[in-house]
Amino acid sequence: MSSTEQGTSSAAPAEPTTAPESAAAPEVPESFYYVHGKDKVVHKVSAGALQHSALIHGMISNLGYTEEQAKANPFPFENIDGDILQMVVDWCNQHKGKPTPPEDTNLPKQKEKLFDLVLAVNYLEIKELLTYCCKQVAMMVKGKSPEEIREIWMIPTDAEDEAAEKEAKKRAGKEAAGETAAAAGDAK
Amino acid sequence: MSNSKFPLLNLPSEVIDRALKSMDRLELIAYSFASKNATKQVKSLNVLIQCFVTEFAGSLILTLHTVSARAIQFRFDLDQDGNLNRTSENVEVSLLGVAEETFKWTNQGKTLIEWFHHLNQLFKHSARMSIVRFHTNQPVANLGDIRSLLPKRICLYISTYNPEADDNEKKYAQRVYEEFLPNATYLYINLNPFNNTIYLKDFRFRNWDFLDITQLNHFRLEDLLELNAKQSIFRLSFNFSSVNLNRFMKLWRKGSNPRLAVLWMKYPSRTAPDVNVVLKGIPYHRTTVDELKKMHGYYSESWIDSFDDCFKIHRNDGTLAVIFLKLFARVGGLDEAQLIMLVA
User: Fold this and answer.
1) Over residues B108-124, mean pLDDT
2) pTM (2 decimals)?
3) Residue numbers in B near A140 (CB within 8 A)
4) Residue B163 included in any domain
5) SS in 3 state form for A81-126?
6) So what's the ipTM on this one?
C-alpha cells in the first residue's frame, strides 16, 4: 500500500510494530522516495516498488538520499494527473518484488483514463504495465468492424489525412519564409 | 468499456505499434481498412501468417491461415463470369474453428481485386505460397483475370465432389489445369474429370515440388520413373503391383528419380503390396519406429506409429531411404494399404 500525503499534512506510513521472529540476518531497511503529480499530492513509494519504472529507477539509483532528503525533494511529474499517478503508484506497490501475472483486470475501463494512464506509463517506462495497457487498448476493438474501429480510435479518413498534410506543409513553408525574412532583416 | 472515444493516433508511435501487435489478426485487418496510413502501419508490423488461400466455390473465398491463431475467412458474392472488377454487396467475415464466429462487414468501397490485393499485402506469408482452389462444379468464366492476380509460384487445387464428372466439369477442369499450370509447383488434383489418368498436358517431365493425386486408376512403372517430383502422394484405385515397386526401387538405387524425397502410395487394401516381392534382391535392414524416431524430419512425427513395418535401403551412392508399410487402415470409410518411401 502506498501512503499518500495531502501536501505535507497526511499521516506517515505505519511502521511495523514487531520484528520478524525468525530473521536470520538483520534486514537492510527499505528506502523510500516521494513523487507528486500535477495535483501536488505527494506519494511515498518504496525503492523496491519504483524499480518497475526504468525512468525513476535510473533517477534514484545514484542519489543515496537519506529519508529526510528524499522527503524534502519529491520527484515532480507535472505532466501526470494526480489520480493517474495514484494508479501507477498503487500498481507498482501491488507488484513489488512479484512476478507480473499474464493479465491485469484492474486497469481503468474509461477510455480517457486509460489514455492518460498509457501516456504516463510510457513516460515512466514501466514495461509490464505498458504491456497490460496496450492489451487493454487492443481489447477495445475486439470484434469490431472497420467503421467501428475508425470511430472508437478516432482515425482520420484519407481525405482528412491529406488535408492535414497540406496544412502542415503550408505552415512549414510560412515559417521558413518568416525565418528568411527575419534573417534578411538582421542582415540589414 | 465506456462509449467515449480513444484518440489512438495521439499516442507515441512506439506505443501504437505495441497496441497493434497485441491485437488479433482479424482486428488488425479491420484496422487496416481505416485509412491508407493505417494500412501502412499494419504492413510495417511484419506480422506473419502461414498461407493465403483463394478459393472459387460459387463465391470468392479468401482465407488467411495463421500459425497459432484461428484462420480468418472472407466470403464475397461472385457472378458467373467471375468478374473481380466489381464490388460485393456485403462481405461475410468468419473466424474459423470449433466455435465459428461470423460477422458482416461493408465492402469498404473496394472491388474484389482490391480486396485481394489489400489482404495479400498486409502480412508476411511464412509459406511464401499462395494456394488457389477451384471446384469443378462451380465454374468461373474469367480465368485469365484470376491468373493475372497470382504470384509466379502457386499451389493449385482442382477439387471435384462428383464421382461421375459431366462434360462441363471435364472441360472446366481442363481449362483450369491448363491456365494455371505455368504457375503451379504444388498440385492437388482429383482425376475424376481427367478420365482418371495423369496423361495431362505437360504433366510429366515438369519439376514438381509436391503432388497429391486422387482417383488414379492407370499408372505404369514408366510413369513413376518419369516423375520429377520431390514429394508425391498417389491415391490409387487399382493395384500397382509389388513387382513394379520392386523394379522401381532397384532403379532408384541405381540413380533414377534423383529428386525424390517422399513417395506415398495409397491402395485399396485388397491390393496391399507384398513386402517379400517389393524388396526382393534389394539389400535391406528391418528397423523399428523407435529407432527411426531418433532420426530427424518425418521420423519424429506421430503418424509413423501406425505403420506395421519399416525397412532401410540404400542407394548405390549411400543415400538412405526408409520404406514404411501399412497393410490395413480405414480412411474415410474405405480400407486401404499404404507404402511410403522417405529419402533421407
Assistant:
1) 92
2) 0.81
3) 1, 6
4) no
5) CHHHHHHHHHHHHHCCCCCCCCCCCCCCCCHHHHHHHHHHHHHHCE
6) 0.79
The number of beta carbons lying within 10 Å of the beta carbon of residue A184 is 9
Nearest in space to A49 (alpha carbons), one of A126, A142, A107, A105: A126
Which one of B9, B19, B36 has the shortest CB-CB distance to A138? B19
Per the structure block, which three cell numbers stand in for B222?
A: 514408366
Who among A110, A115, A146 is closest to B34 (CB)? A146
Query: Beta strand B59-65 with B72-76: parallel, antiparallel or unpaired?
Result: antiparallel
CB–CB of B132/B188 below 8 Å?
no
Residue B52 lies in a domain: yes
Q: Do B9 and A115 touch (CB under 8 A)?
A: no
Task: Show which of residues 58-117 on chain A sit within 8 Å of chain B, judged by CB atoms.
Answer: 109-112, 114-115
| Fold classified for A3-7+27-155 | Potassium Channel Kv1.1; Chain A (3.30.710)
Mean pLDDT across chain A, nearest whole number?
A: 80
Residue of A nearest to B104 (CA): A145
Rounded distance, CA A140 to CA A148, Å? 10
